[in-house]
Amino acid sequence: MTRLLMLPLLLLGFAASAQTAPTTAPRLGLGKPTTIPLYIEALSMKPNPMYVVDGQIVDSSALSTISPDQIKSVSIIKPQAAAASFGPRVRNGTVMITNKPVKTGR
């Protein structure tokens, strides 16, 4: 066979062994799909601080249960100062909320 006639056969061989890869994993050459690690937390446009309400660490969903009338003060602590108090897991600072004392009795 001539080389020109063998080309389609070679291409069929490549097509038979072709692998599909998700669009998030680009292929570079004929090797394995390349994975590119994405550090989404570092690239996030909305950094999430740690929330502390009356000394208790809470997640942001717990903030919706607090009435604005209950809040005595709100403090924003930068990451370096927050790391001294709460350890290295605080990357984006801390929001500290102190509630007013609950009145009991009369």
UniProtKB/TrEMBL annotation:
Indicate the transmembrane segments per the record. none
Primary location: membrane
**Protein's UniProt keywords contain Signal:** yes
Q: Name one GO cellular component term.
A: cell outer membrane
Which positions make up the signal peptide? 1-20
Q: Which Gene3D superfamilies match?
A: TonB-dependent receptor, plug domain
**Keywords noted in UniProt:** Cell outer membrane, Membrane, Signal, Transmembrane, Transmembrane beta strand, Transport
Query: Mind telling me which SUPFAM superfamilies this protein's record contains?
Result: Porins (SSF56935)
**Compartment(s) where it occurs, according to its Swiss-Prot or TrEMBL record:** Cell outer membrane
- Coiled coil region boundaries: none
Q: State the annotated membrane topology for this chain.
A: Multi-pass membrane protein
User: Could you say which protein family the record assigns here?
Assistant: Belongs to the TonB-dependent receptor family.
Q: What is this protein called?
A: TonB-dependent receptor plug domain-containing protein
